[in-house]
Amino acid sequence: MECSHKAEHEQAAKRALENMPPEEEVGRVAAIFKAISEPSRLKILFALRHGEMCVFHIVEAVGGAQSAVSHQLRLLKACGMVKSRRDGQNIVYSLSDEHVVAVLELACAHLHCKL
Amino acid sequence: MECSHKAEHEQAAKRALENMPPEEEVGRVAAIFKAISEPSRLKILFALRHGEMCVFHIVEAVGGAQSAVSHQLRLLKACGMVKSRRDGQNIVYSLSDEHVVAVLELACAHLHCKL
DNA sequence: TCAATATATGAATAACTGTTCATATATTAC
DNA sequence: GTAATATATGAACAGTTATTCATATATTGA
After folding, report:
1. CB-CB under 8 Å, B107 with A103
2. Which nucleotide across the nucleic acid strands is nearest to B9, CA versus C1'?
3. What is the CATH number of the domain that holds B48?
4. How distant, in Å, are the alpha carbons of A63, A88, A106 from that of B49?
5. Domain residues for B69?
6. Neighbours of A68 (CB within 10 A)
7. Running DSSP on this structure, what letter comes out for residue A1?
8. Is strand C less than 7 A from the beta carbon of B65?
C-alpha cells in the first residue's frame, strides 16, 4: 500500500467504497449483462431489432434447436430484456424497451464496429 | 410456421438473417458483456469510475482476495475495458474509455435505478 | 374428440468460469 | 546481492450454465 499515488488512490478507493451500490443492486445489473453475454442470446436480441417475431422465425434467424432458443427466450424474458404475447398458436417476442437497443448499440460503439 | 403474422415475421426474419453480424463479431460483443456480467468484475468497474487506482486500493474498494482481483483485472484488460500502466512497484488501472462508463450508466437507466 | 402444430419444460450431461492456494515475477530499499 | 512489497500466474476444485433429448402444454381445425 506504499504506492507513490497513495493520497489520490486512497481518496478514490474511499469514494469508491462509499459509493459502491449494495450487493443486491450490483447483482441485478450483472444479471442484465449476463443475459446478453452469450452469443446465442445476443443473436436473438440482434434479430429482434428488426421487428417482433414468433419463435419459429427467431429460430430461422439465429439458428440452433427450437428447444435451445426457447430456453434462452425464457431467460431473456425473466430479466426483462424481451416481452412476449400470445397470438393464436404463436408466441410473439419483441425487445422490451429502447434501453435494450441502446445498450447493444453502445457496446458496438465501444468496439468501433458497425452492425 | 403458419402464424397469422407470417408476412411481417418472415420479412423481419429475413432482414435479421441478412444483417446478423458474423459469428466472430457477435463473439466479441458478447465478450464485452460477459466481462461485466460478474458482480466481482462489475464492482471493479464501479470502483474505477472514481479514478485510477493501483491493485492494492482496488482490493480495498471491492473486497475479496488479491489473487482473485488480479485474475479479474486481467480479464477486464483482455477485452479492453480497463487499461493499466506501471508506476514503480504498483500497477495503476483505469477505465479504458468513456464508452465503458456509458454502458454502465445505460444499464442503470434500464433498471430505473440510480447509482 | 382427435390430429396437427407451436412453444415450453424437466432432467441429464458437458463445457465453462470464478475462486483459492501456492508460487512466480518485478520493483524498490538496504 | 538480499529482503520486502506489489502484482501476476498456474493448477485444481466447485459452482454455474448451455445444450440436447424427450415430453408436456396449448391452440387450431376437422
Report:
1. yes
2. C6
3. 1.10.10.10
4. 39, 49, 18
5. 6-111
6. 13
7. -
8. yes
- pTM, to two decimals: 0.86
From A48's Cα to the closest Cα of chain B, the distance in A is 7
Q: What are the per-10-residue average pLDDT scores of chain A (115 residues)? A: 65 90 86 90 94 95 95 94 94 90 78 58
Domain count, chain B: 1
**How many angstroms separate the CA atoms of B69 and B15, rounded?**
42
Q: Does B30 map to a domain?
A: yes
Could you say which of B17, B27, B111 has the minimum Cβ distance to residue A29?
B111
Measure B68 CA to nearest chain A CA, in Å. 18
Q: Is residue A1 part of a domain?
A: no
- pLDDT digit string, tens, across residues A71-92: 999 999 998 899 999 999 999 9
With vertex at residue A93, the alpha carbon angle to CA B13 and CA A95, rounded to the nearest 5 degrees, is 90
Domain-located, residue B40: yes
- Residue B11, CB, strand C, below 7 Å: no
For residue A101, the surrounding DSSP H or E stretch is helix A98-111
| B7 contact partners, CB below 8 Å, separation of at least 6 | none
